[in-house]
């Protein structure tokens, strides 16, 4: 859970604490499909994917976005979050794909971010951060921004 954070203690250029997920597996994808109701064959059907020359199933983009959101709320209490926007930039395959090199690294994602602006908006003291989620090989999965209205001391 995020500790209290104050507007006065955050500066433009500060980096948010990085967050690295556990390796994502097919089991994570199946659980997410059940929870979200998204049973697109891209996320679970190897036979379907082989028709398109893909080596494996891929993660739901929203699962990776959820991991990104978790990284944010590990740093900023959720009650302060005003907006969270992302652009999906790459596919994440499960850690157990055996026909790809370094698959565990590819299936582990790390979220990083940096404060790019501080301003007063409608009476709130707001920070804006750019964020990125990438695998251990540096392949970007998500880019985005978030804003948070923080309390003053």
Describe the structure.
With 153 residues, the chain is an alpha+beta fold. The chain has helices spanning 26-36, 46-50, 61-75, 103-107, and strands spanning 19-20, 81-88, 109-121, 124-135, 140-149. It has a single domain (7-149), classed as Roll (Thiol Ester Dehydrase, Chain A), CATH 3.10.129. It has a five-stranded antiparallel sheet. Strand 3 (109-121) and strand 4 (124-135) form a beta hairpin. The chain is elongated and about 55 Å long.
Tags for this model:
5 strands, 153 residues, Thiol Ester Dehydrase, Chain A, alpha+beta, 5-stranded antiparallel β-sheet
Question: pLDDT below 50 for ≥5 consecutive residues: which ranges?
Answer: none
Widest sheet: strand ordering: 1-3-4-5-2
**What would CATH call the class?**
Alpha Beta
Question: How many distinct folded domains?
Answer: 1
List the helices and strands and how they pair.
Layout: E1 19-20, H1 26-36, H2 46-50, H3 61-75, E2 81-88, H4 103-107, E3 109-121, E4 124-135, E5 140-149
Antiparallel strand pairs: 1-3, 2-5, 3-4, 4-5
Summarize the structure.
With 153 residues, the chain is an alpha+beta fold. It has one domain (7-149): Hotdog Thioesterase (Thiol Ester Dehydrase, Chain A, Roll).
């Amino acid at each position: 859970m995020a500790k209290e954070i104050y507007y006065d203690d955050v500066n433009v250029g500060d980096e948010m604490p990085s967050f690295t997920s556990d390796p994502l597996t097919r089991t994570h994808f199946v659980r997410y499909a059940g929870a979200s109701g998204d049973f697109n064959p891209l996320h679970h059907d190897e036979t379907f994917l082989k028709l398109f020359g893909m080596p494996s199933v891929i993660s739901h983009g929203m699962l990776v976005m959820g991991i990104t959101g978790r990284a944010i709320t590990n740093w900023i209490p959720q009650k302060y979050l005003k907006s969270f926007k992302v652009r999906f930039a790459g596919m994440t395959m499960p850690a157990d794909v055996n026909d790809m090199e370094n698959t565990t690294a590819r299936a582990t994602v790390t979220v990083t971010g940096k404060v790019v602006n501080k301003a007063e908006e409608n009476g709130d003291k707001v920070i804006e951060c750019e964020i990125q989620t990438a695998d251990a090989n540096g392949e970007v999965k998500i880019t985005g921004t978030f804003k948070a209205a923080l309390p003053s001391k």
